[in-house]
Amino acid sequence: xxxxxxxxxxxxxxxxxxxxxxxxxxxxxxxxxxxxxxxxxxxxxxxxxxxxxxxxxxxxxxxxxxxxxxxxxxxxxxxxxxxxxxxxxxxxxxxxxxxxxxxxxxxxxxxxxxxxxxxxxxxxxxxxxxxxxxxxx
Length: 137
Prior knowledge:
By secondary structure, this protein is mostly helical. Helices cover about 60% and strands about 0% of the residues. It has helices at about 5-25, 35-50, 65-75, 85-105, 105-110, 125-135.
């Protein structure tokens, strides 16, 4: 298969997976325990300004807010479903894989894409982390 056809195939696959996962993210609620008990409450505490108020924190784990909760709080602020968190991460990952494919073979670059099939409707930072690594390879 020629490289152009292979690039087209991966672009089509990426868009198809992105659209189907976006639909899932828009039509489902966050139900994963880590998201519901940790990430979403921390994002809400960032929005209401109590993230650094020790008395307002209900769990010892809430003492460790990260940048991912800041991104999630922006989604909550604009009344977007929290499940879109990793959809934006997937867009970031797709851009990284595209940039990496300019330097190495697209097949090698696509080895990072099994992250797609991780549960996309969570608010964990896995997709963002692999995208960050790809951008700095």
